[in-house]
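// run 5 | inverse folding | seed 20
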């Protein structure tokens, strides 16, 4: 983690986590070329980063 990053903890439902797991592995889904290369946790982290970018 760099000096410009802050670590947080979130709680999501099991259903949401299972959906993130599926989407992270779906080559036709939003993960695109990264499908299967990231965990559900990494996928969720990336979604949050994209949603909050300037």
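// decoded
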């Amino acid at each position: 983690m760099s000096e410009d990053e802050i670590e947080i903890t979130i709680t999501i439902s099991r259903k949401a986590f299972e959906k993130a797991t599926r989407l992270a592995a779906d080559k036709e889904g939003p993960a695109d070329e990264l499908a299967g290369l990231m965990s559900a946790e990494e996928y969720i982290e990336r979604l949050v980063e994209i949603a909050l970018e300037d």
